[in-house]
């Protein structure tokens, strides 16, 4: 047996095994070789694919970069030379003619460019026309992609996007057979007229189509100033005059200004557009804004495009609210922006609005684009950027329109749009900050003039617009070292304490204190304003535990029990002691004192940060729910928070929000604390508006929870809490009897009373407008209130129509 496993026997056995294996494994070797060759072929294919993909990416990047650089043409070349060179580069130095994937990607890029940067897309049209003359097939592909996107937008009811693509087809009409874009506009206005004539009220779908047509008409004569184009524009406008448009009753509620002393008369953008087109028609449709299109070769054959059809059932998915046209530069001596009667004011605003709202995902890109708007029009349209008003006044033969002024007006108009902006306010704040960072010499002076315009007209501004202005300006200052010419406002500190300008200064300083430390803000203010800054204090003091106080021992015991995370039952003894001491001193009710001490203790432990506050509220929630189980007790809770935090309003607001989120206080109790428990002075505080928003938003969050929604549907009380809030607000703010103002112990002057009523009416107006949809659903409850004040009824009627 030993010889069997000897070293001598192994070779022969292995040899035999190898021979046997070699015979059986020959097919496997062949398979391995074939597999090897297969993978080599695949590697070659992948390598070729990678090269192709890399080439496609390179070509697409070159095309994309070429179009995006249309605002930076070579100044040494003529416009015509630059456009021809760009077109030649795209056609001859890329694979776009051979590669369908690249052509598709380019069309998709142009779609986004048309939507997000429409001004730049207008500048790209001469280039696309030249490309079409070099390669009709490519031109036809691009045109039909525009047609496809127009059809999709119409089918989806997105009339604003449809407007953007129809505009491109109008601009490219010189290379298209027939007049399909004009025919489409005629069909659209006919449909709008039909829809409106069959409706007793203003048909919002018809209005949306009507607006789309009117905004498209000027581009007919921008593309071609020939007699035929002017005739087409006139014919379309004449047809549009048959549309029955009535000014909405809700229009005054959307105005920035609330009295007859406003710097200009606000109007809705559609009425303004109709008036501007009338003026343009009387001027024989002369409109020189864009460079002339390049002449086509004599042998160029116009391109045929797919038909665009209006579906049988049209839809509308945009806002129904009327759109106001706002201005912020009304210098009668120098027109730094187009006057309202000129169509150019609407054209520029429309282009900027689309960029702001469609490019909202990138504030840096939108800032760069809108600040270069003057580069997409003829050089004679605008004055040069950064020119001072003094030099502008010296211009006798040329434009005085400053592009930065036009941009600033557009951003502020979107920020202050009523009833709400398209984007969150912080987006417009950031765009303004970015614009000032990108072009400080151009935008800096413009900011100053816009801020002074708004400040000078504070007593004429809408309540909500004042607070939006306050939010933006405080945010802006916090990004630029809180520097401002505060000395300009010193004299206004002598106005009545409730005058809008004095309130604005006080609230602005208060807002800045939310962003920084008191000492820093105090150093930047003149001596006359330093009294608005509270003393620097790192953490508020838990006064009930102070040595020698009547409740010091009990307060310390409460603190210790909280730190020990004690059970609810373990608080009973110390609570009884507090009640007993309170009854003996007769300072306040025993339960009220108990609530003050306990909640103040929780706030004291959580005063280090917001996360600490949330943690301690969560730990003590069971006790808090037991103590604050009535509406009056919950109103006390809000007062305790504001008393504890004193001047640190930002911290108080965040803690109140946490109590609201934890349902320790109810939304209705919060509203009643603002409007019932406090003096009317609270109406001048920005935090009062914030608290009302907290309350309404909390109700809506509750209703968005599936379990709560099902429960409320079953009980039939779905919007009861929200309805109670809406009723409470209008009831308290519409009082006209002797209790309409809560003045406290002080005896205010006549001016103070007048301004407090002004603030109260402004809050009512703003609240009705902001929550107009909710008020529509409770009209019967509103009738039951028995409102008689004509102003209140007028605002209510206007809000319900929005």
In terms of per-residue confidence, which ranges show pLDDT below 50 for 5 or more consecutive residues?
1-32, 44-49, 708-718
**Percent range of helical residues:** 55-70%
The shape, in one word, is elongated
Structural class: mainly alpha
List keywords for this structure.
802 residues; mainly alpha; two-stranded antiparallel sheet; 36 helices; elongated; disordered N terminus
Structure description:
There is one protein chain. Strands 1-2 form a two-stranded antiparallel ribbon. The termini are far apart. It has helices at about 10-25, 25-70, 80-90, 100-115, 120-135, 135-155, 160-170, 180-195, 205-215, 220-225, 225-240, 270-280, 345-360, 365-370, 390-395, 405-415, 425-440, 440-455, 465-480, 500-515, 520-525, 550-565, 570-585, 590-605, 610-620, 620-625, 630-645, 650-660, 665-675, 685-705, 705-715, 720-735, 750-770, 770-775, 780-785, 790-800; strands at about 265-270, 325. It is elongated. Residues about 1-30, about 45-50 and about 710-720 have low confidence and may be disordered. Helix content is about 65%, strand content about 0%. The protein is mainly α and about 800 residues long. The chain has 36 helices and two strands.
